[in-house]
Design a protein that fits this description.
This protein has 258 residues and is of the alpha/beta class. The protein has twelve helices and ten strands. The protein binds octanoyl-coenzyme A (CO8). Octanoyl-coenzyme A binds next to helix 2 and strand 6. Its EC number is 4.2.1.17.
C-alpha cells in the first residue's frame, strides 16, 4: 500500500508502522525521506481508524544521521536561507502518539528523530549518539536540547562534545529510552505497546500526550494547572461517561472518540 520510495508504511489494525527504508545509506535522513515521512504522519494523524504509530529502521540502523552526502556541498546561505530541516518541526506537531523502535545506530539526526517521538523502545543492540562534532558541525534537529532534557547536562554535554555513543543499557539508566528488549522482540513489543495505546479513548490519549509534553515547556505550577484544566475537560466527553460506567459494570469500555 506504500506509495513512497524511502519509507514503508503499513497499517496493522489501529497501528501505523513506518519503516525507514534507505538500507544502503543506513537510513540517512535526506530531503526525500523527510517529505515522505511528514506526508505519512499527516495521513496517520488524519485517519480516524489509526490510534498510534511506530517508527522503526533496520536491524543495523534506525538512522545513521542526516544525509552527509546531501549536506556536504551546502553553504551557510543554502542552510540558513532555506532554514534547512525546519520541516522536521512539523513532525513534532503530530497529535497522536508515535513510538520509536530503535535497533542499531541512532546517530545525529537519527537520534534526534527518535527523541522527537513520544518515547523510545530500544533493542539491546541500540547505540545512540550525536557525532556531528566529528564533522565540524553540531546537532541541528533539536539534539542539543532534547538530549539535555532527557539525560541531563553532564551526559548530553559529553556526548555532543566527544561524539561518543551510548549503548542501550546506559541509555535506559539515563532515561533516554523507556525499555530495552532483545532485538528479536523489539518490533513485536513496540506493535503491542502501540496497540495498547490505540485501544484507549482517543481524546484521552491526545490529552495525556499533550500534558506530558507541556512539562517540557513550562513551570511546574503552570503545568499542573494545564493538566487540571484538560482533566476537567475530559469530563465533557462521552468516553469518560462510558469509561467509568464500564469500570463499575466490570466490562470493557467501548469508545466513540467523542
Ligand atoms: N549520511 C550519508 N550516508 C551515510 C551516513 C550518513 N549520515 N551514514 C552512513 N552512510 C552510508 C555510508 O557512506 C556508506 O555508504 P557507501 O556504501 O556508499 O560508502 C553506507 O551508509 C554504510 O556505511 P558504513 O560503510 O560507514 O558502515 P559502517 O558499519 O562501517 O559504519 C557508522 C556505520 C558508524 C554508522 C558510520 O556509517 C557513520 O559513522 N556514519 C555517520 C554517522 C554520523 O556522523 N551521523 C551524523 C550525521 S550529521 C547529522 O545528523 C546532523 C543532524 C542535523 C542536521 C540538521 C541540519 C540543519
Amino acid at each position: 500500500m506504500s506509495q513512497y520510495e524511502t519509507i514503508l508504511v503499513e497499517q496493522r489494525g489501529a497501528v501505523t508502522l513506518v519503516t525507514l527504508n534507505r538500507p544502503k545509506a543506513l537510513n540517512a535522513l535526506n530531503t526525500q525521506i523527510l517529505s515522505e515521512l511528514l506526508d505519512a504522519m499527516r495521513a496517520f494523524d488524519e485517519d480516524a481508524s489509526q490510534g498510534c504509530a511506530v517508527i522503526t529502521g533496520s536491524e543495523k540502523a534506525f538512522a545513521a544521521g542526516a544525509d552527509i552526502k546531501e549536506m556536504q556541498a551546502q553553504g551557510f546561505a543554502d542552510m540558513y536561507g532555506h532554514d534547512f530541516f525546519a520541516g522536521w518541526d512539523a513532525f513534532t506537531r503530530t497529535r497522536k502518539p508515535v513510538i520509536a523502535a530503535v535497533a542499531g545506530y541512532a546517530l545525529g539526526g537519527g537520534c534526534e528523530l527518535a527523541m522527537m517521538c513520544d518515547f523510545i523502545l530500544a533493542a539491546d543492540s541500540a547505540k545512540f549518539g550525536q557525532p556531528e562534532i566529528k564533522l565540524a558541525v553540531s546537532p541541528g534537529m533539536g539534539g542539543s536540547q532534547r538530549l539535555t532534557r532527557a539525560v541531563g547536562k553532564a551526559k548530553a554535554m559529553e556526548m555532543c562534545l566527544t561524539g561518543r555513543m551510548m549503548d542501550a543499557d546506559e541509555a535506559e539508566r539515563a532515561g533516554l529510552v523507556s525499555r530495552i528488549l532483545p532485538a528479536a522482540e523489539l518490533l513485536n513489543d513496540a506493535l503491542k505497546t502501540a496497540a495498547t495505546i490505540a485501544s484507549m479513548a482517543p481524546l484521552a490519549v491526545k490529552a495525556n500526550k499533550e500534558m506530558v509534553d507541556v512539562a517540557y515547556e513550562t513551570t511546574l505550577a503552570q503545568g499542573v494547572q494545564f493538566e487540571r484544566r484538560l482533566f476537567h475537560a475530559l469530563f465533557g466527553t462521552q468516553d469518560q461517561t462510558e469509561g467509568m460506567a464500564a469500570f463499575v459494570e466490570k466490562r470493557s469500555g467501548i469508545w466513540t472518540g467523542k
